[in-house]
């Protein structure tokens, strides 16, 4: 596995930032703190920095590892002919990242798409996951939304995601669907996500991911296999994946705990301290 140094960004001040090759793709990886290993996996339209506030809260007790998934943030954005952008491909990349970083077993927290990856990792590689926390995970099909529907149209989807989805539309989409309180994220923060999204390669990665993850049945089919101690966290104002999805998921995983947070689809953006406290309590009980 090849590594090369990378310059930290302003948002990652005080963290260790490097690039690691996993599944043949260069991944940007940010680490904070010392202690037991804790891996945080992000969702669509964002990157590792969605976890920054949570990671800073947890870094006093854990070595917190926040990678950019293939196709996102500062990670390489391979063409779909090289990387499938489905949950299986992402899961294989994270399993390979474990090997590249010599993590052994580590706790995993995943949000949205990252939650689907975390669920699949725990089902397929229980030897890697010591504890599992999923946050508003993509365990069932999301509620229909305009850009999601357009993404699956061969011509219109490519046109929207590669050319027409602009800054103001991106802000409105994020506030309406990701947040329970639209004012919880500043324009500056949303613009950072937009700039990361606003390149041909990045837009292509998002489009490929949306198309490759529309069928969530393979994720749901594996949940009953999970033996790892699990916490399911959900924003009670989630407009994309209703609370009922999280409740069903918690019932399907043996012994899983379920907790609600006062947030929308992205609690790490709205309630980072509360989310970090819930994760910390859960992990401490296991030790």
Overall 3D shape: globular
Number of helices, counting only DSSP H or I runs of 4 residues or more: 12
Low-confidence runs of at least 5 consecutive residues? 1-10
Spatial strand arrangement across the major sheet? 1-2-3-5-4-6-7-8-9
Helix content: 40-55%
Rg value? 17 Å
Mean pLDDT: 88
- N- to C-terminal distance: 32 Å
Give the biggest beta sheet.
9 strands, mixed
Helix-and-strand structural type: alpha/beta
In percent, how much strand structure appears in the residues?
Answer: 15-25%
Number of strands: 9
- Helices and strands, in N-to-C order? EEEEHEHEHEHHHHHHEHEHH
Description:
The protein is an alpha/beta fold and 287 residues long. It is 42% helix and 18% strand. It is built from 12 helices and 9 strands. It has a 9-stranded mixed beta sheet, with helices on both faces. Strand 6, helix 3 and strand 7 form a beta-alpha-beta unit. The longest helix has 15 residues. The radius of gyration is 17 Å and the shape is globular. It starts with a strand and ends with a helix. The N terminus is likely disordered.
